[in-house]
Specification:
Radius of gyration: 18 Å
Number of domains: 1
Low-confidence stretches: 1-24
Structural class: alpha/beta
Mean pLDDT: 87
Number of strands: 13
Distance between the termini: 17 Å
Strand order of the largest sheet: 2-3-5-6-7-8-11-13
Order of helices and strands: HEEEEEHEHEHHEEEHEEHE
Largest sheet: 8 strands, parallel, barrel
CATH class: Alpha Beta
Strand content: 25-35%
């Protein structure tokens, strides 16, 4: 099992002055050229975190567990412990294996957001990481509406999205997301590798009419699209950090 990040080292790195990100270059995704990162459990601290202006930090997974004759929804803790990150923005991320959330599920996540905030962290909100199939987008929108109602208004709601949403998804359902979530981060990778055909989906992303970011994988492939970046809804990039040797 990979080791969790060392909190002391992470805090020391984040205490460094923010380094302005260098211009994005074509080809391999170099984390040093960006300023927003996903930080997953087991990923070792990297010097690039010293320039982080925004962190999406894994905190757990929402799963269904069978207990005797019934199924119960549970939140399984994952990722790093509560830290004290004084700069930038912090999102807490929960992977979802099920959408059968209960009020208690959301309250557990809200409690974690409050813990991080009370420790002095600049918490922005919650990100739901769920790989919903495109044909199930309407049901996902309905689920997110319930989460949004249960989430205190002081917190924003972010979700991850799949590349083919804008090409093959229900346009009406996608447009409804604008009234529910504050952003969608579209993933251009699957597993630990960039999706080989990612370029074919980029033109459709320009039709999104809600705030979106592009999710990249460290050391993956990315060729910037100036017309995509020119969209009034484009909000930048988020890089999924991974350990050396995983790419």
């Amino acid at each position: 099992m990979l080791r969790q990040p060392c909190i002391a080292v992470l805090l020391a790195v984040l205490a460094l002055a923010l380094i302005p990100p260098r211009p994005v270059a074509a080809g391999v995704v170099k984390a040093e050229q960006y300023s927003s990162f996903w930080l997953w459990g087991g990923v070792q601290t990297q010097p690039v975190l010293g320039q982080a202006q925004e962190l999406y930090i894994l905190q757990g997974q929402v799963v269904e567990k069978k207990q005797q004759d019934r199924t119960q929804v549970a939140v399984v803790a994952q990722g790093m412990s509560v830290a004290r990150l004084k700069k930038g923005k912090v999102w807490l991320v929960y992977r979802a294996d099920t959408l059968n959330w209960t009020p208690a599920t959301v309250q557990a996540l809200v409690g974690r957001l409050q813990q991080w905030q009370q420790a002095g962290n600049p918490v922005v909100g919650l990100q739901v990481d769920f790989d919903v199939r495109t044909r199930h987008l309407p049901e996902y929108v309905a689920f997110l509406k319930q989460v949004r109602v249960a989430l205190p208004k002081t917190y924003q709601l972010s979700i991850t999205g799949l590349l083919d949403w804008s090409s093959n998804g229900d346009t009406e359902a996608i447009n409804q997301l604008q009234q529910v979530v504050d952003e969608v981060v579209v993933q251009t990778y699957q597993g630990r590798k960039t999706i080989a055909t990612y370029k074919r989906y980029l033109p459709a992303l320009k039709r999104l009419n809600l705030p979106f970011k592009i999710g990249l994988i460290q050391q993956g492939e990315w060729v910037p699209d100036p017309t995509l970046e020119a969209s009034p809804w484009f909000r930048g990039y988020v890089v999924f950090l991974q350990n050396q040797g995983r790419y």
